[in-house]
Amino acid sequence: MTTYQPRAWENTLLSFAHEGWETRLRPLPVHLEDIRALDEAYAYCDFVTRVNSRSFYAASSFLPYEKRRSIRALYAVCRVCDNIVDKPVRDRLAKLANWSREALSRNPSPDALIAMAWADTRRRYHIPQRYTEQLFEGVARDLGQDRYQTFDDLATYAYGVASTVGLMSMHIIGFEGPAALPYAVKLGVALQITNILRDIGEDFRSGRVYLPLEELSAFDLSEQDLSRGLVDDRWRAFMRFQIGRNRQLYAEAWPGVGMLNTDGRMAIAAAAKIYGAILDDIEAHDYDVFQRRAHVSTWKKLSMLPGIWWGVHGLNIPDGG
Questions:
Q1: In the Cβ-directed half-sphere of 137, how many Cα atoms lie within 13 Å?
Q2: How many CA atoms are closer than 13 Å to the CA of 246, on its beta-carbon side?
Q3: Per-residue model confidence (pLDDT) at position 22
Q4: Which is nearest to 27 in space by CA: 126, 99, 113, 171?
Q5: Pick from 278, 183, 186: nearest CA to 239
Q6: Closest CA to 156 of 129, 181, 140, 138
Q7: Nearest to 187 by CA among 153, 164, 215
Q8: Contact between 45 and 69 (Cβ < 8 Å)
Q9: Rg of the chain's alpha carbons, rounded to an integer?
Q10: Which pTM does this prediction carry?
Q11: Is 229 left (phi over 0), alpha (psi -120 to 50) or beta?
């Protein structure tokens, strides 16, 4: 029996995850007089999620009420980050820093609805503060870096903007213990790489290339080829390699779903499987991510749910990370 040897980037990212683990919050009381304001804050986060991501809104619907609204508060925090980074306005770094301070406050102002809901979520579920800090550090990279030389460097970026979200989601859902950390880290990377593969054309037009440059070169491709948007044999081979690795990450992360509390497994499984189906759509359209944006139709999502449900109920808790 061979022993699994983590890749170098996995060890690096897991060290980040353990660093965050050490900053878990102690339980803090929820003030009853704030219930009405908190309900309003959570309702606003629900609205932000529903308007901006139908897929996430649908997947999170499988969670119980309290966990569902907390997961959507986390989504709203991320949505504000994305809005700051994606808008071509001045002082984005300062705006992001201001939002970071507000989102990390334990007592945000009453009119800061998303920050208020997030502060309550962090208290309820003892979410490590360092994970929120790492999220903001990852998002800030988009303001100063738009190229990545290696996959290891890209994986570090993916940890900041996606694995941190998975780690915080895991605290909201509930999980077996620190042995679950590697699975959450890997699923976050898988989800972010799917985003990157789906948005290659859109990102290039905005001046960003999230594909590892050394891997492009290995397939005899360059940024000039990206600008032409030509789907040829080189591009197909490159995308087959990228999609194959991405699917392997999903497969390796999947057993971690079995380490979550039972009432949260379906939500995470649905998100992973439906997002993974984006890769199928890329393949079905001959790897053309320049002229169209890959997606999964509502009918397709619904048709996948029974299989996902059976897959979740067949999960066993893995022996370790």
A1: 14
A2: 28
A3: 85
A4: 126
A5: 278
A6: 138
A7: 164
A8: yes
A9: 20
A10: 0.91
A11: left
The amino acid at 129: Q
What pLDDT score does 25 carry? 62
User: Is residue 128 helix, strand or coil?
Assistant: coil
pLDDT along the chain (321 residues), means of 10: 70 92 66 73 96 88 94 96 84 92 89 94 92 95 93 97 96 92 96 96 94 97 95 97 97 93 91 93 96 90 88 66 42
Provide the Cα torsion 31, 35, 40, 42; round to 10°: 70
Residue type, position 160, single letter: G
**14 vs 4: CA distance, rounded Å:** 15
Orientation of helix 164-173 relative to helix 8-21, angle to 10° = 50
Tokens 């983590």 sit on residue: 6
Residues 9, 159: contact at Cβ < 8 Å? no
- Residue 10 tokens read as 């996995």
Quote the CA–CA distance of 184 and 14 in Å, as a whole number.
10
Q: How far apart are CA 287 and CA 294, in angstroms?
A: 9
- CA-to-CA distance for 160 and 120, rounded, in angstroms? 22
HSE value, Cβ hemisphere, 13 Å, CA-based, for 214: 7
With a CB cutoff of 8 Å and minimum separation 6, the contacts of 122 are 25, 106, 129, 132
Tally of residues, the chain: 321
Reading the block at residue 244, the tokens are 């194959």
**DSSP 8-state class, residue 291:** S
Instruction: Say what the pLDDT of residue 32 is.
Output: 42
CA distances to 117, 173, 225, 307 from 266, in Å: 24, 11, 40, 11
Structure tokens at 206: 């905005």
Distance in angstroms (rounded) separating the CA atoms of residues 133 and 167 = 12
Quick one: tokens of 213? 């440059």
Q: Contact, 49 vs 75, CB < 8 A?
A: yes
